[in-house]
Specification:
178 residues, alpha+beta, 2 domains, 7 strands
C-alpha cells in the first residue's frame, strides 16, 4: 500500500499550502514596508502632531535669520549667511555666485520696492547631510509693490547648509518654479 505522504494529491496539497504560506509572508512584508514608508512621510516636520528634530529647529531658525536680514535690508548680516564659494542655481537666471548674490541684496536694499520674503507655512523639510550639514527644502512667497498694488509669487527652493566651527552658512542654493 502506498504511503499517504507520497500520494500525488497530498503532494499537490502540500505545495499549495507552502505557496499560500509564502504568499502570506510576502504580503505581510509588503504591508510592513508600506506602513514604514507612510510613517516616514508623516514624520516630516510640518505634518500634524509631529515634534520637529533639533536639526529641523536649527535650520528653521537659520532660515528666519537669513530672511529677517533680507526683509530688514541688513546687508552685513545677509553677507554672513553665505560661504564665499556660494553657487546659486536659478531656473531663469542661471548660475551665479557670492558676489552676484550680495550685489542683488544691495540692489534690493537701494531700490526700496518693498520686496519681502516669507516661508510658506508647512512647506519646510530638513534632511541631514552627515559630516557636512543639512539640506533645507521648501517654498517661499516673495511680494513687492508694482504699479501701486501688491505683486506676489510662490517659488520652491533648496538650501545646502554647512555647519563649520559651530556656524551655519549656505554653500548652495537652488531656486526654481518661477
Amino acid at each position: 500500500m502506498q504511503s499517504t505522504n507520497y500520494h500525488p494529491i497530498f503532494v499537490l496539497t502540500k505545495r499549495k499550502e507552502m505557496n499560500l504560506k509564502l504568499i502570506i509572508k510576502i504580503s505581510i512584508l509588503i504591508l510592513v514596508i508600506h506602513l514604514s514608508v507612510i510613517g516616514l512621510i508623516e514624520a516630516q516636520p510640518g505634518n500634524s502632531g509631529v515634534q520637529p528634530t533639533e536639526l529641523y529647529k536649527e535650520i528653521e531658525h537659520m532660515d528666519s535669520v537669513l530672511f529677517n536680514a533680507f526683509n530688514d535690508r541688513d546687508t552685513v548680516q545677509f553677507k554672513k549667511m553665505f560661504t564665499p564659494d556660494l553657487e546659486f542655481y536659478h531656473d531663469q537666471g542661471g548660475l551665479t555666485g557670492y558676489d552676484q548674490t550680495i550685489g542683488f541684496m544691495r540692489s534690493t536694499a537701494n531700490s526700496n520696492n518693498g520686496l519681502r520674503r516669507e516661508l510658506v507655512k508647512g512647506s519646510l523639510e530638513v534632511y541631514p547631510i552627515p559630516g557636512y550639514g543639512a539640506m533645507e527644502i521648501g517654498s517661499h512667497r516673495f511680494c513687492h509693490m508694482e504699479n501701486g498694488k501688491q505683486d506676489c509669487g510662490v517659488f520652491k527652493f533648496v538650501h545646502i547648509w554647512q555647519k563649520k566651527n559651530g556656524e551655519w552658512r549656505i554653500t548652495r542654493v537652488v531656486s526654481y518654479g518661477h
